[in-house]
Amino acid sequence: MITASHPRAEGGGLSGLLLVALPVALLIWLVLWPVLQAVVGTVYFPGKGFSLSSYAFFFTDAYSLRNLWLTLWVTALTSALRVAVAMPIALYLRFRSGSIAALVQSLALFPLFVPSVLVAYAFIRVLGPNGIVDTVLVALGLPKLPTPYLTPAGPIIGLVWERLPLTLLLLLSGLGRVSIASVDAARDLGAGGLTIFSRIILPRIQSSIIVALAFNVLGLFSAFTLPYLLGPASPEMMGPYMQRTFSDNADPLNATTQAVITFAFCAAFGLVYVRAIARGRRGPA
Amino acid sequence: MAQVRLSGIAKTFGKVTALDAMDLVIDDGELVCLLGPSGSGKSTLLRIIGGFETPSAGAIAIDGVDVTGLPPERRPTAMVFQSHALWSHMTVHGNIAFGLKLRRLPKSEIRDRVERVLDLVGLAGYGGRLPSQLSGGQQQRVALARSLVIEPKILLLDEPFASLDQHLRERLRDEVRDIQQRLGITAVFVTHGQDEALAISDRIVVLADGRMQQVGRPGEIYAEPKTAFVAGFIGAMNMLDGLLADGEIAASGLRLAAEGSGPARLAIRPEDIALSEPADGRAATVRRMIDFGAHVVIDSALADGTHLRIQTDKAIRVAPGERIGIRVDRWTVFTEDGEPRRYRSDTLRSFRDVRYA
Ligand SMILES: Nc1ncnc2c1ncn2[C@@H]1O[C@H](COP(=O)(O)OP(=O)(O)OP(=O)(O)O)[C@@H](O)[C@H]1O
Ligand SMILES: [Mg+2]
């Protein structure tokens, strides 16, 4: 039997260490230190000692929990939707070529260059009350659209569209490792489209999908602009909630507590992401 | 029975004509090589036979049944790709069994057939490995087994061993030939290596720029190339630009008997040249001598500097700069229009070449 050698076991030597020293130092200074400060700041109060009361408040406050719950399911649904929408496009782009593919690609990547605020206002103009769709429906004598604006569907639609390109690019990079010949070979042996996707393609882009999901979750969990502009006022997603607690309610302690909790969730997803990458590197694609 | 009949096959990609006016019949049990330079349309033709491309014009029939519009899975063909076609997340067994599982065969039969085909390609006992745990040659054997296990009538191979080193390539191509003969299946083998084509095919189809240049047995193509392209492409060949006049062709200071007039191309195989006393129109200067062990190749220069390759006896020794006389035993003259004309020195002995007899 052949045993694969572990790349990690070999080590990169001193030069490798120096190479990562700067980014690691920056990471500690700009990310880990503030996190630590935030965590300490929510549990240790000079002169009063340790207290978990702000966390106890968050996890007993119905409104906070509703916000957390909303954030969780909007995040889950949005990232699943992004992958679901991006997948057919990615498959098309990978296995077809020509002018239509080029057009699809530029259309799909277009949102990459549009700021969130514009997305929000375009959304309101098109799908909002008395927006283009409504106007057309009314002109045709049809009933008005139940607008997704200011409902959870609002930010979901906006968020899916906004970050579709990134998901698409991640999936494309995964599909790049699935050779066209290997798909042709399956077709040759009699596999239909669905079988090829589930048995040949999917197993080999698993890690890309996990990476795409984790990436999405990280960004979505603390998304602010679109939930703020398009979402319902109550319950609200963690991003706007934190912002409001901090500035409108002038309550830095609870805002920081919310931030730490958000961070904890993100860190958990980050762990999934890191493990997926490690597995993708070790195992065959 | 598995006969392939191509009639008037053409394929264009946008403005590029990849194939044009292909008529070809591949007989049952025959191994045909598609040979040609890069971009000549070999893969396109193979993919049309396999159903991966639809021809822009023409029809293709297998055993008399028109399959022009059928997708790959509904044709009795199986394709072996150049490389990167194994499914790296499945074991060797999984790769080979895939086609059988799709056919919903019972488990025990699948196991038997996979084992038999692994045996056939010399990989018995390798079923549990992942493709990444195999050498390049073994991987291509698995690819071959995966195609063979579904018992296709026609095996299509697109440069299956191109990424392997020469030694392995030679061994595998002989194995393919062997397996093909044993199973008695029809095979179409794409290659751009002429030695590969000469070594294994029953017939060779030489392609250039999407057109069939010549179809024939290996020996025939080697000995009697129909076009200057084929002459230059198959085997080593000296191709010289010359002028026909007064019963002679003059090319780079070399003069040989030939009929006709006007510009023409003179083709001489290196092994059809022998050394002799220098004479007017029969001399060259040695540039370099390459000793291949079994024979010697002399790279020489004609009067105007054109290279002339001479293959000769291993006992011969010449030095760079040395002036040598040459005697050409066979040559072919290609003119713009009309059939190539072949000459041999012994048929001309009576008049000009008598001195070199
Ligand atoms: N999908 C395609 N789209 C556009 N042009 C193509 C396509 N496939 C092949 N061609 C063109 O058709 C011609 C023949 O290509 P083909 O792949 O058949 O050549 P080949 O003889 O197999 O070459 P090689 O030895 O390099 O594999 C080339 O000019 C190529 O650029
Ligand atoms: Mg090719």
Automatic annotation (TrEMBL), chain A:
It is found in: Cell membrane. GO terms for cellular component: plasma membrane. InterPro entries: MetI-like, MetI-like_sf. It is a multi-pass membrane protein. Keywords: Cell membrane, Membrane, Transmembrane, Transmembrane helix, Transport. Pfam families: BPD_transp_1. GO terms for biological process: transmembrane transport. Residues 68-273 form the ABC transmembrane type-1 domain. The chain crosses the membrane at residues 12-36, 68-93, 100-124, 209-230, 255-274. The keyword Transport applies. Belongs to the binding-protein-dependent transport system permease family. CysTW subfamily. This is Spermidine/putrescine ABC transporter permease. It comes from Pleomorphomonas carboxyditropha.
From TrEMBL, chain B:
The keyword Transmembrane helix does not apply. One of its GO terms (molecular function) is ATP hydrolysis activity. PROSITE patterns: ABC_TRANSPORTER_1, ABC_TRANSPORTER_2. It comes from the Bacteria. One of its GO terms (cellular component) is ATP-binding cassette (ABC) transporter complex. Keywords: ATP-binding, Nucleotide-binding, Transport. Pfam families: ABC_tran (PF00005), TOBE_2 (PF08402). The keyword Membrane does not apply. SMART domains: AAA. Residues 4-234 form the ABC transporter domain. One of its GO terms (biological process) is quaternary ammonium group transport. InterPro entries: AAA+_ATPase (IPR003593), ABC_SmlMolc_Importer (IPR050093), ABC_transporter-like_ATP-bd (IPR003439), ABC_transporter-like_CS (IPR017871), Mo/tungstate-bd_C_term_dom (IPR008995), P-loop_NTPase (IPR027417), Transp-assoc_OB_typ2 (IPR013611). PANTHER family: SPERMIDINE/PUTRESCINE IMPORT ATP-BINDING PROTEIN POTA, SPERMIDINE_PUTRESCINE IMPORT ATP-BINDING PROTEIN POTA. Belongs to the ABC transporter superfamily. This is ABC transporter ATP-binding protein. It comes from Pleomorphomonas carboxyditropha. The lineage of its organism: Bacteria, Pseudomonadati, Pseudomonadota, Alphaproteobacteria, Hyphomicrobiales.
